[in-house]
Write a structure and sequence with these properties.
single chain, 175 residues, alpha+beta, 8-stranded mixed beta sheet, 4 helices
Length: 175
């Protein structure tokens, strides 16, 4: 069967940590493009699914968190030439329904686990990701440094670099 080159649609979910509303949940990717990089929960948009439905489904499947108040945050165009992949990534923002729940690692073959990170921490990781870009593939994988800071997955790196005001406002106010 011939390989078909298509642009895929991914949905990344910016979920505010209810214990620290200036932080969002992210985890280290495994066994996929971007292996070893820090990414938000998310996945592929399914046929006839709304962006909101996708964000809610992917969050529940990956973290066990139920989210609401789901809304559009940003979109990035993510060409990963070395991996022969191209995505349009739609970032949605949401709140945890229950303030006491914590994310669970429900897909351990795809993720090392979930932690929460501030925008400032993500910016520091982005600077490191950019400084190391000559030593990695386009998704940021295959970099080992002594300081232990994660490299950001390509779409998350682009989100942080573009710093959309709507996302900054979302992280700057209490739910």
């Amino acid at each position: 069967m011939a390989t078909v080159n298509v642009v895929r649609v991914g949905v990344g979910v910016i979920i505010r940590d209810p214990r620290n509303p200036r932080k969002v949940f992210a985890g280290m990717r495994r066994n996929s493009h971007g292996d070893g990089t820090l990414a938000l929960p998310g996945g592929h948009l399914e046929m006839h699914e709304t962006w909101e439905e996708c964000a809610i489904r992917e969050t529940l499947e990956e973290t066990g968190l139920k989210i609401d108040s789901v809304r559009f945050g940003h979109v990035t165009n993510d060409s990963m030439r070395e991996e022969r992949k191209h995505y349009v990534t739609i970032f949605m923002m949401g709140e945890c329904v229950c303030p006491d729940t914590r994310p669970q690692n429900l897909e351990p073959l795809k993720c090392d686990g979930w932690e929460s990170f501030s925008w400032e921490e993500l910016c520091q990781f982005a600077a490191r990701s950019n400084a190391s870009s000559t030593d990695s593939n386009e998704s940021g994988a295959e970099i080992e440094e002594n300081d232990g800071s994660p490299i950001l997955f390509g779409p998350l790196l682009k989100l942080v670099e573009e710093a959309p005001q709507i996302v900054l406002d979302f992280l700057d106010k209490s739910p």
